[in-house]
Design a protein that fits this description.
Blueprint (H helix, E strand, L loop, with lengths): L2 H13 L4 H22 L2 E7 L8 E5 L2 E5 L11 H12 L7 E4 L4 H4 L2 H7 L5 E3 L10 E4 L2 E7 L13 E7 L2 E5 L5 H11 L7 E3 L11 H7 L3 E4 L12 H10 L3 E4 H4 L2 E6 L4 E5 L13
Parallel strand pairs: 3-4, 4-5, 9-10, 10-11, 11-12
Antiparallel strand pairs: 1-2, 1-13, 2-3, 6-7, 7-8, 8-9, 13-14
Helix pairs in contact: 1-2
Length: 293
């Protein structure tokens, strides 16, 4: 089940008690959308979901019948985490009950805070980065038509955690998604010197949630994204994504910017005709409480 059928299913239960006719209409729409969504999933070579986990990051990548989770969102001192609130329920609605690979970019709580909850919730066949094997810069593997490339640090360093983030590039049919973790502009310059054209990507998940200390002109020049995704919390204290970053994107790449704080969870997909689409979960058909600005 995809984003919209799942949300409409919730809406059916919400309005059943007072407006039965509306509920029945929504139920029929949910069935229809669910049918078309399942049919469409079979045609997708790659699906990347940037979940709405507030001020943090959690990405679900599905390809060739397998699932990779990149970061888990924030965890709190009382033990509750965004993994329990958002990530695990999402995986369950998608019929995912085991993880082929979980990659934690670094140890900061807004990226690694749900790791323990994930380990407790379902089998994880391989773990990379914080809490798992050290990431190896340049490691590549394939799931069907999709190639994965690890860039940068081990994800395990306690010194300069952000700049030692384990980053990931995912490519299918010439369309790439680049997920840089929390690297700074200084490390981005190192990437440009080494990786150059391999950094080119249709979709850039903005490093460090769109902080002004990242997304340098140098990186944006080589990535040239069509889409830029900011995973940030509504009203966050850091001003993410920075307006300076938005201006740099407009100047260098003229990218369309989506922000989980405003657009909800964002799904990027590439079909077997090489068409890439990116769309936020919040939609005009959803009830108002699921599409707050």
């Amino acid at each position: 089940m995809g984003w919209l059928p799942f949300a409409l299913g919730i809406a059916v239960f919400a309005v059943w008690a007072t407006r039965r006719a509306w509920a029945i209409g929504l139920w029929l729409m949910t069935i229809a959308l669910g049918y078309f969504d399942v049919s469409a999933q079979g045609a997708k070579a790659l699906r990347v979901g940037v979940l709405d986990v507030g001020q943090g990051l959690a990405v679900v990548i599905r390809a060739d019948g397998r699932t990779l989770v990149y970061d888990t969102g924030h965890g709190f001192l009382d033990g509750f985490s965004q993994a329990e609130k958002v990530l695990i329920p999402f995986l369950q609605t998608q019929g995912v009950h085991e993880i082929d690979l979980m990659l934690i970019s670094h140890a900061d709580q807004d990226h690694a805070g749900g790791r323990a909850a994930m380990v407790a919730a379902m089998p994880i066949h391989r773990a990379l980065g914080f809490g798992g094997e050290p990431c190896r810069n340049g490691e590549r593997w394939r799931w069907g038509d999709v190639e994965f490339l690890v860039i940068n640090g081990t994800g395990q360093s306690e010194d300069r955690r952000n700049d030692n983030s384990c980053a990931l590039a995912v490519t299918v049919f010439g369309q790439s998604v680049l997920i840089p973790g929390d690297v700074s502009a200084m490390r981005e310059h190192d990437w440009v010197a080494y990786w150059r054209e391999e950094l080119n990507a249709a979709v850039l998940v903005l490093p460090h949630h769109g902080s002004n200390t990242s997304s340098s002109y140098a990186l944006l020049k080589w990535v040239q994204p069509d889409w830029a995704i900011a995973s940030s919390g509504r009203g966050n204290a850091f001003g993410h994504p920075s307006q300076r970053v938005i201006a740099r994107l407009a100047a260098v790449a003229d990218a369309t910017v989506l922000n989980t704080a405003a657009d909800g969870a964002i799904e990027i997909s590439v079909d077997r005709n090489r068409l890439l689409t990116a769309m936020g979960q919040r939609h005009q058909l959803l009830p108002y409480w699921l599409k707050l600005p």
